[in-house]
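Let us walk through a complete example step by step. Step one is to write down the protein sequence. Step two is to encode the small molecule, adenosine-5'-diphosphate, as a SMILES string so that its atoms and bonds are unambiguous. Step three, shown after the inputs, is the structure prediction itself.
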Amino acid sequence: MARTDNNSGRKKPNILITGTPGTGKTTMASALSEATQLRHINIGDLVKEKNLHDGWDEKFECYILNEDLVCDELEDLMEEGGNIVDYHGCDFFPERWFDRVVVLQTENSVLYDRLTRRGYSGTKLTNNIECEIFQVLLEEAKESYPEEIVFTMRSDTIEDVNNNVSSLSDWIRSWNTAA
Ligand SMILES: Nc1ncnc2c1ncn2[C@@H]1O[C@H](COP(=O)(O)OP(=O)(O)O)[C@@H](O)[C@H]1O
Ligand SMILES: [Mg+2]
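Step three: the predicted structure of the complex.
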């Protein structure tokens, strides 16, 4: 790939994997991490482990992530490069952190089944399905990052995961040789 892709000074790229809960971010990020030896950072897990939150949100049944604490925690690693960040949000990370932003997308009925299997029901289920229908994460990504680094990828089947991992691995490899 063209050298112009690599103007960050990082030896390895940082990739953000985002999308509605259940679209397969963690599945794909861990497969990609295994294939490329890049570091998988699951923001949800990190927030819990390091207490980077302001308590539990009863209504949305999730931790209230503290954006400043998360960004401070990650700054050095992100500057170093070679990270795959996995989170269902993207507007609070510094724009300069990422070389590529991948928005995973899943067909509604497939996503519905996955979230039901995960135990989601009622408003939580509906909110997430609507989030996918209205492409909330894609809009957020386009508003937060340069359009040329934002890509959508299908995540309906395991074959999709394999194809996505393979094309992203190629891109990461070409980044290494271009540096
Ligand atoms: N592309 C895919 N095809 C089939 N099943 C998938 C796919 N992506 C994820 N899954 C399954 O869907 C569930 C949710 O995936 P997960 O990676 O935890 O999503 P997220 O991290 O985006 O919330 C898991 O049970 C996972 O095995
Ligand atoms: Mg996940």
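Step four is interpretation. The longest strand covers residues 100-105.
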